[in-house]
């Protein structure tokens, strides 16, 4: 599918895009003010308080629910770097997969937010047992952000890099 918004050509890339030559950045950079603010926000989520494994499980489940091939492709790689196995990455797509309780909670957060737009009281109580207040906020913001980004990627028709 042809992109609705073409990425910036390489001669217009800033230092960040040169170091991270992905269409998501080169496309959103067409709106410089929004791009700079979004990079800061997204950077905090990618380098936050959550363990990398938890972060990538939440993003992958959100990419699956959102049917975001772009997010899936990039975060499957990041998930492997965070220690997820190929079987675990594939199993994110299957709600009946057997997961340890810690992983199941992260996936449940993404499921609750996808299906209900909120967390059940049981999911919230489990989050309170596992994460501090900042971690709870961060996990909810992470899932919400990647849901929003999936909509942007799909609507703008951002192509996965070859």
TrEMBL record:
- Top-rank taxon, per record: Bacteria
What this protein is called in its record is Alkylhydroperoxidase family enzyme, contains CxxC motif
A single GO molecular function term of this UniProt record: peroxiredoxin activity
Supply the alphabetized keyword list.
Oxidoreductase, Peroxidase
Pfam families xrefs: CMD (PF02627)
Q: Does the keyword Nucleotidyltransferase apply?
A: no
PANTHER family on file: 4-CARBOXYMUCONOLACTONE DECARBOXYLASE FAMILY PROTEIN (AFU_ORTHOLOGUE AFUA_6G11590), CARBOXYMUCONOLACTONE DECARBOXYLASE-LIKE DOMAIN-CONTAINING PROTEIN
Q: Which InterPro entries match?
A: AhpD-like, CMD-like
Q: Which residues form a coiled coil?
A: none
This protein's record includes keyword Oxidoreductase? yes
Gene3D superfamilies found in the cross-reference section = AhpD-like
Organism ancestry: Bacteria, Bacillati, Actinomycetota, Actinomycetes, Streptosporangiales
| Carboxymuconolactone decarboxylase-like domain mapped to chain residues | 32-102
